[in-house]
Amino acid sequence: MFCGSVSEATTASASEKEVGERTFQARCASCHGQDGSGKTAIGKSLGIPDLRAADVHKQSDTQLAEVIANGTSKMPPFKNSLSNDQIHALVGYIRELAQKE
């Protein structure tokens, strides 16, 4: 029974990773770039931060989720178009971007 619980947790984590990546590609990559660097035409024109940067990763998960949900002066809010689970998955995906660099 314990092994079954571990399997279920692993499947849930893999699923969350997939949700985070799919959501990022669909909603974020056009401005932040496929790699999160912000080196897109829109990203450069707006001075979008590199999501792989240390100053982004110094923020807590709650802070990152609030930025995604409520937006900034340069970024629209996503609280009405993304679920809490999608926002949480995005935070996890952003954390992984720094590791891919």
For the record, the CATH architecture stands as: Orthogonal Bundle
Give the CATH class: Mainly Alpha
Major sheet characteristics: none
The CATH topology label is Cytochrome Bc1 Complex, Chain D, domain 2
Number of helices: 6
What percentage of the residues does DSSP assign to strands (E)?
A: under 5%
Radius of gyration: 14 Å
Question: How many domains?
Answer: 1
Percent helix, as a range, is 55-70%
Describe what this molecule looks like in 3D.
It is a single chain. By secondary structure, the protein is mainly α. It has helices at about 1-25, 30, 40-45, 55, 60-70, 85-100. The protein has a single domain (about 1-100), classed as Cytochrome Bc1 Complex, Chain D, domain 2, CATH 1.10.760.10. The chain has 6 helices and no strands. Helices cover about 65% and strands about 0% of the residues. Residues about 1-10 have low confidence and may be disordered.
Short description:
With 101 residues, the chain is an all-alpha fold. Helices cover 66% and strands 0% of the residues.
Q: Which helices and strands appear, and what pairs or packs with what?
A:
Layout: H1 2-27, H2 29-32, H3 41-46, H4 54-57, H5 61-70, H6 84-100
Which key features would you list for this structure?
101 residues, globular, 66% helix, Cytochrome Bc1 Complex, Chain D, domain 2, disordered N terminus
